[in-house]
Design brief:
Nuclear Transport Factor 2, Chain: A, six-stranded mixed sheet, 148 residues, alpha+beta, 32% helix, 4 helices
């Protein structure tokens, strides 16, 4: 792996922080889509959700999330660039994500975000996103996956 200059590392971290901030806004669909390339793969199949591709599908996913929830909070740490070649990178960070549903339910997950990113004329953009989990999934998500 080539050395990732600090300027690129900070710009990539800023991209991921901007993603979390847009999600936590509970309304910034344009901000969420701006994180991703137009053909990005957004994959939460690890929690039983359908993998989607592209801005329209990502926007639709978050429209449903925002309709069902009243609050979100995502805390990010332990950023690491695991691949870098000058114009693309692979990065992961730890996330603690919390949601308060409009029906009164709540959810907390502990996991890692994984992003593949590319340098574009508009700055770094994500081409692929997925998440894995470090702690057992809450019952509501285990049910979505069909786990006992």
């Amino acid at each position: 792996m080539a050395h990732c200059p600090v300027e690129d590392r900070m710009a990539i971290e800023d991209l991921i922080v901007a993603y979390a901030a847009a999600v936590d806004s509970m309304s910034d669909l344009d901000g969420i889509c701006a994180i991703f390339t137009g053909d990005a793969e957004f994959d939460l199949s690890g929690i039983g959700m359908t993998k989607v591709v592209g801005h329209a599908a990502i926007r639709s996913f978050y429209e449903a999330v925002f309709a069902a929830n009243s609050h979100h909070a995502h805390y990010l740490s332990n950023f690491a660039v695991s691949g870098y070649d000058g114009d693309s990178a692979v990065v992961r960070c730890y996330v603690q994500g919390m949601a308060q549903a409009k029906d009164g339910g709540s959810l907390t997950v502990h996991g890692r975000y994984h992003f593949a990113v590319v340098r574009t004329a508009a700055g770094w953009k994500a081409t692929r996103y997925h998440m894995d989990f470090l702690m057992p999934l809450p019952a509501v998500l285990a049910d979505a996956r069909g786990e006992p």
